[in-house]
Amino acid sequence: SQQGEEDPQALSIQEGENATMNCSYKTSINNLQWYRQNSGRGLVHLILIRSNEREKHSGRLRVTLDTSKKSSSLLITASRAADTASYFCVGGFQKLVFGTGTRLLVSP
Amino acid sequence: GAVVSQHPSWVICKSGTSVKIECRSLDFQATTMFWYRQFPKQSLMLMATSNEGSKATYEQGVEKDKFLINHASLTLSTLTVTSAHPEDSSFYICSASSPQGRAEAFFGQGTRLTVV
Questions:
Q1: Please, which residues 61-90 of chain A have a Cβ atom closer than 8 Å to chain B?
Q2: HSE toward the beta carbon, residue B48, CA cutoff 13 A
């Protein structure tokens, strides 16, 4: 598994705005995943992008992957208060090692 | 999607007692489950890999005699915190490897342990 490092550590926006979170990793990966964790809860898988993909969409989520820069970004469009959570990126397969995440706060 | 249920959601226990946390895969068989620990506003720390029918594999620095893991069936792994102390108070989360060998993991809801 490949630990990702998310940036920024914290992000505060208003409802309706877009939120962009970045992720960097150190070694080659076959895929990169993004997870969300609401406060005091388990993690929820959001989206997986494979190493041969550059961009992927799922609803209001858009993920990009740049393997040459070993980086990824997660864009949440038209954010809602319910998007308030911590977001983690991680590379690899099943046994996942997590970074510190980005804490997103969406204010009404 | 695959569902993982973790129980209890929260528990308060006295110092010196043991606490058992259960992690169940409800609609699929999980030969491998993972246990994490999370302190407030910090990331998840992988504690151990639980393998059905064999001994768990612990990460460096995790005391195997302190955190007993049993994976007796394809749908159940348990973590027992033995002789708990206040410093064991934390949020414990389990995950199960996806069926059909997919990459994504499915997480339980977590257990908030408070040792008083």
A1: 88
A2: 24
